[in-house]
Amino acid sequence: MSIHKFNYNKTFRLENGKRLKGLQIAYHTYGRLNTRKDNVVWVCHALTANSDVFDWWPGLFGERDLFNPQEHFIICANIIGSHYGTTNPLTTNPSTDQPYYLSFPQFSIRDLVAAHELLAQHLGIDKIKVLIGGSLGGQQAMEWAIIHPDRIENLVLLATNAQHSPWGVAFNESQRLAISADRTFYANKPNGGAKGLKVARSIALLSYRTYETYGATQLESSDEKIDDFRASSYQNYQGEKLVKRFNAYSYWFLSKAMDAHNVGRGRDGAEKALQHIRAKTLVIGITSDILFPLDEQKYLAKHIRNAKFAAINSFYGHDGFLIETKQISKEIAAFLKQSYPNRLDRTLQPLI
């Protein structure tokens, strides 16, 4: 599927009062909107993912999967600040004719939602049959269901929380410290902070997986080895892989948006905020997730009216929400009272 662009030519006001002059949103669609306009599935993507959900969430989204273009009109839009076509720190600032870099205005999860609300209006989408997101994507979906409760019919939240935890903030700050220790981050060039970003990704991976995951996948076969360990090579490879497809400035601002996530801000606390959600809600947690532990999803299910909670057993930690698509598909199909499609299992490459 080809990528589409929506240009909002008016000034976009952010939650903190700052403004973006002109806003471009990159997005993908799959399938067709039916005549009743009641088959919309909207996907909110995670930290370093993109709008091509068929690429990074196969097994849940695809031609033969639960969410397929034969039955659904699927929309996934790239978020503000990200690297894949929506206005971000590498975009040219119309006031200076130079890229924003670190002068890009700080934004919040609510700003990401406000931008996608504009896209929904542009596409003539009044109702969303299913709104789904995991991790940072779940934070967005939750905010949207609070801000516009009558627009969302079914809400699926995976491996996410009502407020980003001190533990999560500490991981993100450690990653930003790594990026800022790379002096090129302040050089105002597209690949600035690349070495720091590599280290940041290495830190992040430790929160995405678990002790058991590394013990099984990176264990040495020889007792004699004293250097060049498999785990070391893996960390280097994953860091370099992100550097090739992302930029340090986007990562910096997106991690700050995640840190500031708190549905209770300005709403008398998280519990009252969650009570605004009217959508039929399924909250899914991953048993081995150390970044967004199960207690955070149980909290959501407790305080969202009539929400259902499901725990997915996984070996893969936080990445399980992207990998365990067979289990997740069955839970969502039962929740939506849809038939679960027969398909072959696939080996997935997490992209979060």
TrEMBL record:
Coiled coil: none
Family matches, as InterPro entries: AB_hydrolase_1, AB_hydrolase_fold, HAT_MetX-like
GO molecular function: homoserine O-acetyltransferase activity
Active site: S135 (nucleophile), D289, H318
Documented EC number(s): 2.3.1.31
Subcellular location field: Cytoplasm
Annotated Gene Ontology cellular component terms: cytoplasm
Binding site for substrate: R201, D319
Keyword field: Acyltransferase, Amino-acid biosynthesis, Cytoplasm, Methionine biosynthesis, Transferase
Record's subunit section: Homodimer.
Name used for this protein in its record: Homoserine O-acetyltransferase
Naturally occurring in which organism (per UniProt): Sphingobacterium sp. (strain 21)
Gene that produces this protein: metXA
